[in-house]
Amino acid sequence: MDDRHMQIGEVAARTELSLRTIRHYEETGLVVPSARSQGGFRLYTENDVARLMVIRRMKPLGFTLDQMRDLLEATDRLDAGEALDAAERDALLERVRTYQQAATEQVEKLRVQLSRAEDFAATLGARLEHNVPAVS
């Protein structure tokens, strides 16, 4: 990824997160701006945007901030390029695997909810069509 820096407004537009939300994630330690401008503005890189996208995707699946932090720490360690012994690598991969399984389960629950919501909307639509007076 390139080293180009973006201000928070551009990051917000790219991630579809509010400035307030991005600042909140910074305050909680989930994401840290890669740099600051001479004027003190937060500056972000593509890696920071990717990190925010992980957070954005986890939120609707019901993951807590602590779980987000735990997953990001595990993936950071795996991606750091540092030599990991086999046991540590396996433990990190197991943490990621646990989150993947939890995400898959939550997606399935959401599919069921969506199907029920679609059925409900269709039932209401049919009821409305059935009760619309005929136009003469």
The total beta strand count reads 3
Number of helices: 5
How big a fraction of the residues is strand?
5-15%
- Let me know the average pLDDT: 92
Look at the helices and sheets and give the structural class: mainly alpha
- Main sheet makeup: 3 strands, antiparallel
* Rg from Cα: 22 Å
Topology:
Elements: E1 6-7, H1 8-15, H2 19-27, E2 35-36, E3 42-44, H3 46-58, H4 65-79, H5 86-131
Helix pairs in contact: 4-5
Task: Describe this structure as you would to a colleague.
The chain has 5 helices and 3 strands; from the N terminus they run βααββααα. The protein has 136 residues and is mainly alpha-helical. The protein has a 3-stranded antiparallel β-sheet with strand order 1-3-2. Strand 2 and strand 3 form a beta hairpin. The mean pLDDT is 92.
